[in-house]
Protein backbone atom coordinates (compact mmCIF):
# COMPACT_ATOMS: atom_id res chain seq x y z
CA UNK A 1 0.00 0.00 0.00
CA UNK A 2 1.09 3.57 -0.57
CA UNK A 3 2.11 5.60 2.47
CA UNK A 4 2.85 9.27 2.57
CA UNK A 5 5.34 11.35 4.51
CA UNK A 6 7.02 9.83 7.55
CA UNK A 7 5.69 11.92 10.45
CA UNK A 8 7.56 10.33 13.31
CA UNK A 9 9.42 7.29 14.59
CA UNK A 10 9.51 5.73 18.03
CA UNK A 11 11.33 2.76 19.47
CA UNK A 12 8.92 0.23 17.98
CA UNK A 13 6.86 1.94 15.27
CA UNK A 14 6.80 4.52 12.48
CA UNK A 15 3.91 6.88 11.70
CA UNK A 16 3.11 7.87 8.11
CA UNK A 17 0.62 10.35 6.68
CA UNK A 18 -2.18 8.85 4.63
CA UNK A 19 -4.08 12.08 4.00
CA UNK A 20 -5.22 15.12 5.93
CA UNK A 21 -7.43 13.07 8.24
CA UNK A 22 -5.64 9.79 8.85
CA UNK A 23 -2.21 8.40 9.65
CA UNK A 24 -0.78 4.89 9.46
CA UNK A 25 1.07 3.57 12.51
CA UNK A 26 3.25 0.61 11.48
CA UNK A 27 5.13 -1.57 13.94
CA UNK A 28 8.58 -2.71 12.91
CA UNK A 29 8.46 -5.94 14.92
CA UNK A 30 5.26 -7.07 13.18
CA UNK A 31 3.16 -6.86 16.36
CA UNK A 32 -0.47 -7.85 15.89
CA UNK A 33 -2.58 -4.78 16.67
CA UNK A 34 -5.87 -6.58 17.43
CA UNK A 35 -5.64 -6.11 21.21
CA UNK A 36 -4.51 -2.50 20.91
CA UNK A 37 -7.49 -1.64 18.73
CA UNK A 38 -9.84 -3.38 21.17
CA UNK A 39 -8.50 -1.41 24.15
CA UNK A 40 -8.66 1.92 22.31
CA UNK A 41 -12.24 1.25 21.20
CA UNK A 42 -13.20 0.26 24.75
CA UNK A 43 -11.82 3.30 26.55
CA UNK A 44 -13.13 5.62 23.82
CA UNK A 45 -16.64 4.32 24.54
CA UNK A 46 -16.22 5.66 28.09
CA UNK A 47 -15.18 9.07 26.78
CA UNK A 48 -11.45 8.70 27.40
CA UNK A 49 -9.46 10.80 24.89
CA UNK A 50 -7.83 8.58 22.26
CA UNK A 51 -7.43 9.04 18.50
CA UNK A 52 -10.36 7.87 16.41
CA UNK A 53 -9.78 4.55 14.69
CA UNK A 54 -10.01 4.67 10.92
CA UNK A 55 -11.12 2.08 8.37
CA UNK A 56 -8.49 -0.51 7.40
CA UNK A 57 -6.41 0.71 4.49
CA UNK A 58 -6.14 -1.29 1.29
CA UNK A 59 -3.18 -3.63 1.54
CA UNK A 60 -2.71 -2.95 5.26
CA UNK A 61 -0.78 -5.44 7.38
CA UNK A 62 -1.80 -6.84 10.76
CA UNK A 63 0.94 -4.61 12.17
CA UNK A 64 -0.78 -1.45 10.90
CA UNK A 65 -3.16 0.92 12.64
CA UNK A 66 -5.09 3.61 10.79
CA UNK A 67 -5.71 6.42 13.26
CA UNK A 68 -6.99 9.97 13.32
CA UNK A 69 -4.37 12.52 12.33
CA UNK A 70 -4.04 14.82 15.33
CA UNK A 71 -3.00 18.46 15.13
CA UNK A 72 -0.89 19.82 17.94
CA UNK A 73 2.35 19.19 19.82
CA UNK A 74 3.03 16.41 22.25
CA UNK A 75 3.14 17.40 25.89
CA UNK A 76 6.91 16.85 25.72
CA UNK A 77 7.23 19.26 22.79
CA UNK A 78 5.09 21.85 24.57
CA UNK A 79 7.34 21.57 27.63
CA UNK A 80 10.44 22.01 25.51
CA UNK A 81 8.94 25.09 23.85
CA UNK A 82 8.01 26.61 27.19
CA UNK A 83 4.30 26.57 26.30
CA UNK A 84 3.44 24.40 29.31
CA UNK A 85 4.93 24.48 32.81
CA UNK A 86 6.40 21.26 34.19
CA UNK A 87 4.17 21.47 37.25
CA UNK A 88 1.05 21.70 35.10
CA UNK A 89 2.23 18.87 32.84
CA UNK A 90 2.81 16.55 35.81
CA UNK A 91 -0.65 17.31 37.17
CA UNK A 92 -2.12 16.65 33.71
CA UNK A 93 -0.54 13.20 33.59
CA UNK A 94 -1.96 12.44 37.02
CA UNK A 95 -5.47 13.48 35.98
CA UNK A 96 -5.30 11.34 32.84
CA UNK A 97 -4.25 8.33 34.93
CA UNK A 98 -7.16 8.94 37.30
CA UNK A 99 -9.65 9.22 34.42
CA UNK A 100 -8.32 6.04 32.84
CA UNK A 101 -8.45 4.08 36.09
CA UNK A 102 -12.08 5.07 36.60
CA UNK A 103 -12.95 2.77 33.68
CA UNK A 104 -13.84 -0.82 34.69
CA UNK A 105 -11.79 -3.71 33.27
CA UNK A 106 -12.65 -4.96 29.81
CA UNK A 107 -11.79 -8.66 30.23
CA UNK A 108 -10.53 -9.21 33.78
CA UNK A 109 -12.89 -10.82 36.28
CA UNK A 110 -11.21 -8.96 39.16
CA UNK A 111 -13.32 -5.87 39.88
CA UNK A 112 -10.27 -4.11 41.33
CA UNK A 113 -8.39 -4.33 38.02
CA UNK A 114 -8.39 -1.44 35.58
CA UNK A 115 -7.13 -0.60 32.09
CA UNK A 116 -3.42 0.26 32.38
CA UNK A 117 -1.64 2.29 29.70
CA UNK A 118 1.83 1.46 31.09
CA UNK A 119 3.61 4.18 29.12
CA UNK A 120 1.74 7.36 30.00
CA UNK A 121 4.43 10.04 29.75
CA UNK A 122 4.71 13.45 28.05
CA UNK A 123 5.73 11.95 24.71
CA UNK A 124 2.46 9.99 24.55
CA UNK A 125 0.07 12.87 25.20
CA UNK A 126 -0.87 15.16 22.32
CA UNK A 127 -2.32 18.60 22.98
CA UNK A 128 -5.13 19.20 20.50
CA UNK A 129 -7.93 21.72 20.17
CA UNK A 130 -10.25 19.31 22.00
CA UNK A 131 -7.78 18.80 24.81
CA UNK A 132 -5.11 16.19 25.62
CA UNK A 133 -5.28 12.93 23.67
CA UNK A 134 -3.38 9.81 24.78
CA UNK A 135 -1.57 7.87 22.07
CA UNK A 136 0.45 4.64 21.79
CA UNK A 137 -1.58 1.92 23.48
CA UNK A 138 0.75 -0.91 22.46
CA UNK A 139 1.73 -1.68 26.07
CA UNK A 140 -1.80 -1.58 27.53
CA UNK A 141 -2.83 -4.33 29.93
CA UNK A 142 -5.27 -4.85 32.78
CA UNK A 143 -4.28 -4.96 36.43
CA UNK A 144 -3.96 -2.93 39.63
CA UNK A 145 -3.95 0.82 38.88
CA UNK A 146 -1.09 1.42 41.32
CA UNK A 147 1.22 -0.36 38.90
CA UNK A 148 0.33 2.07 36.11
CA UNK A 149 0.96 5.04 38.40
CA UNK A 150 4.33 3.56 39.37
CA UNK A 151 5.38 3.04 35.74
CA UNK A 152 4.64 6.69 34.90
CA UNK A 153 6.48 7.90 38.01
CA UNK A 154 9.47 5.69 37.27
CA UNK A 155 9.63 6.95 33.67
CA UNK A 156 9.85 10.54 34.89
CA UNK A 157 12.40 9.67 37.59
CA UNK A 158 14.52 7.86 35.05
CA UNK A 159 14.36 10.86 32.70
CA UNK A 160 15.56 13.09 35.54
CA UNK A 161 18.55 10.82 36.10
CA UNK A 162 19.56 10.17 32.49
CA UNK A 163 19.03 13.58 30.86
CA UNK A 164 22.27 15.11 29.63
CA UNK A 165 20.91 18.64 30.05
CA UNK A 166 20.75 19.94 33.64
CA UNK A 167 17.70 22.07 32.85
CA UNK A 168 15.81 19.10 31.42
CA UNK A 169 16.77 16.95 34.41
CA UNK A 170 15.50 19.62 36.79
CA UNK A 171 12.25 19.94 34.84
CA UNK A 172 11.75 16.17 34.98
CA UNK A 173 12.04 16.33 38.78
CA UNK A 174 9.36 19.02 38.89
CA UNK A 175 7.18 16.88 36.62
CA UNK A 176 7.69 13.89 38.89
CA UNK A 177 6.82 15.80 42.05
CA UNK A 178 3.69 17.26 40.44
CA UNK A 179 2.56 13.85 39.20
CA UNK A 180 3.05 12.28 42.63
CA UNK A 181 1.19 15.13 44.31
CA UNK A 182 -1.74 14.75 41.89
CA UNK A 183 -2.05 10.97 42.43
CA UNK A 184 -1.38 10.96 46.18
CA UNK A 185 -5.07 10.68 47.08
CA UNK A 186 -5.40 7.73 44.69
CA UNK A 187 -2.68 5.77 46.48
CA UNK A 188 0.37 7.30 44.82
CA UNK A 189 3.23 5.09 43.68
CA UNK A 190 4.05 2.61 46.43
CA UNK A 191 7.47 1.07 47.01
CA UNK A 192 6.11 -2.34 46.03
CA UNK A 193 4.62 -1.06 42.76
CA UNK A 194 7.79 0.89 41.95
CA UNK A 195 9.85 -2.27 42.47
CA UNK A 196 7.57 -4.15 40.07
CA UNK A 197 7.86 -1.31 37.57
CA UNK A 198 11.66 -1.46 37.84
CA UNK A 199 11.60 -5.20 37.19
CA UNK A 200 9.47 -4.59 34.12
CA UNK A 201 11.91 -1.89 32.99
CA UNK A 202 14.87 -4.28 33.20
CA UNK A 203 13.04 -6.72 30.93
CA UNK A 204 12.20 -4.08 28.33
CA UNK A 205 14.19 -5.00 25.20
CA UNK A 206 13.92 -1.42 23.92
CA UNK A 207 15.48 0.22 26.99
CA UNK A 208 19.04 1.49 26.77
CA UNK A 209 21.78 0.34 29.09
CA UNK A 210 21.77 3.69 30.88
CA UNK A 211 18.02 3.45 31.42
CA UNK A 212 18.34 -0.01 32.96
CA UNK A 213 21.33 0.90 35.09
CA UNK A 214 19.57 3.78 36.83
CA UNK A 215 16.37 1.96 37.77
CA UNK A 216 17.24 1.44 41.44
CA UNK A 217 18.16 5.11 41.77
CA UNK A 218 14.96 6.04 39.94
CA UNK A 219 12.89 4.10 42.47
CA UNK A 220 14.65 5.97 45.30
CA UNK A 221 14.04 9.30 43.59
CA UNK A 222 10.35 8.57 43.10
CA UNK A 223 9.95 7.56 46.74
CA UNK A 224 11.76 10.65 47.99
CA UNK A 225 9.73 12.94 45.71
CA UNK A 226 6.34 11.87 47.05
CA UNK A 227 4.46 14.50 49.08
Structural commentary:
- The strands form three sheets. A four-stranded antiparallel sheet has the order 1-2-3-4, with no helix packed on it. A two-stranded antiparallel sheet has the order 5-8. A two-stranded antiparallel sheet has the order 6-7.
- The protein has helices at about 35-45, 75-80, 85-100, 145-160, 165-180, 190-205, 210-215, 215-225; strands at about 5-10, 15, 20-25, 65-70, 115, 125-130, 130-135, 140-145.
- It has about 230 residues and is of the alpha+beta class.
- The protein is about 45% helix and about 15% strand.
What labels describe this entry?
227 residues; alpha+beta; four-stranded antiparallel β-sheet; two-stranded antiparallel ribbon; 8 helices; 8 strands; 43% helix; 15% strand
Regions with pLDDT < 50 over 5+ consecutive residues?
none
Give the strand order of the largest sheet, numbering strands 1, 2, ... along the chain: 1-2-3-4
Oligomer status: single chain
Sheet with most strands: 4 strands, antiparallel
What order do the SSEs take from the amino end to the carboxyl end, as H and E?
EEEHEHHEEEEHHHHH
C-alpha termini separation: 51 Å
Brief digest:
The chain has 227 residues and is α+β, with helices and mostly antiparallel strands.
List the helices and strands and how they pair.
Blueprint lengths: L5 E4 L3 E5 L4 E6 L6 H12 L18 E5 L6 H6 L5 H16 L12 E3 L8 E4 L2 E4 L6 E3 L1 H18 L3 H17 L8 H13 L5 H5 L1 H11 L2
